[in-house]
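Exam revision sheet. Question 4 asks you to relate a sequence to its structure. Input first:
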Amino acid sequence: MKPSLVLKMGQQLTMTPQLQQAIRLLQLSTLDLQQEIQEALESNPMLERQEDGDDYDGSDPMGEGAEAASSTTTQADSYQESTTPSVDSLDDDQWAERIPSELPVDTAWEDIYQTSASSLPSSDDDEWDFTARTSSGESLQSHLLWQLNLAPMSDTDRLIALSIIDGINNDGYLEESLDDILSSIDPELDVEMDEVEVVLRRIQQMEPAGVGARNLRECLLLQLRQMPENTYLLTEAQRLVSDHLDLLGSRDYSQLMRRMKLKEDELRETIELIQSLHPRPGSQIESGEAEYVVPDVIVRKHNERWLVELNQEAVPRLRVNSQYAGLVRRADSSADNTFMRNQLQEARWFIKSLQSRNETLMKVATQIVEHQRGFLEYGEEAMKPLVLHDIAEAVGMHESTISRVTTQKFMHTPRGIFELKYFFSSHVSTSEGGECSSTAIRAIIKKLVAAESPKKPLSDSKIAGLLEAQGIQVARRTVAKYRESLGIAPSSERKRLV
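Answer key, structure tokens:
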């Protein structure tokens, strides 16, 4: 094929770097946005944080609408401890002169006065970790090792105990078999299976009760054996767990009463004793890091009107540094001046992107509140169906933009903190020709299950019938799907004695 030159004309959509930055900031969560802003402050000298009480002077050193503000800096008088007389040597007049009416600006109390906190290690010390030393959380493994270090035993038994603890999962169960644990020990120690079982029993006596069990039955029996001997119905509970745990799991109470020869009241109290135990004892010790949610939007009711406002404390306010911006010269094409001009332009676009993000977030949040006013007034059962297209059409934006705005953005309401995506749900047709939100249906199912008879819980078919009586037409499989999403067990597992 002979090569040739071909000229073609066409249209292509491209996004400018400014638009790409605006879209990227739009989809960031509040915590990610705070980190992005901090990185921008550290890399761009033209950006600075606007503190509370700072006033804009309205000047524009470049004549292009840059947000500039006059910043005043007050130098604090240094406090020399070497020239400070002791408290005992000061009379009343001198003591009054030593106490200023106000502390200098940009100083902390500890910078001026000696406090008890000064005795703490310096924050610059890499070895000092306040969170690590004051945190109450610890892992199950470390908790067991701490108890092991306090237990007197031989070196061989301690080595066996370490192997057993390594095989215990976060729920407190021993996942490794005793044969595998025995094979992992050095053969030169000549350890036998009896020794491994003895060490395992010692670990099973540690806290939390039930740790080191190999199955649920053993876990419950270990906890029952550590209860006081005079505990009411303790023997019956041990016999039920040991011999009839399968019947308890299937809720076959009639069989349990017949085989254990117990009355209904005695069986109910026995089951209550078993239910007071922990099926996963390790979860009492294992603790993860707390996850904090910072709301982006705050909704409150004032004078019978719902008000929507941005959480100003979530994102710091930025502005262009007027002093650095005033150093930029128009006609200068030097490398330093070009760098400063580029930094100034980047700072302006960054601030503009943040303003665009806030405006878009406010528009979307306001429309959501308008659509879901019933939820704010009456709760989940009044939730209306809502899809991305409805909000996109109301604010004049694309659905992809609405999806970015509602992802990892949270709204603080009088009913709690919810992700913006929570207010979007599909709909189900009603007998009157209307629509009912799937969130409202879940709330109704939860309400029906809470009011059901414990001896005869509602089946999925029965719940579907009750919803149909309210004009909501849903299939049984749909009810089962909603029930599972709520974490509600099937009717056979909800049956219990009263």
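Marking note for examiners. The CA atoms of residues 131 and 137 lie 10 Å apart.
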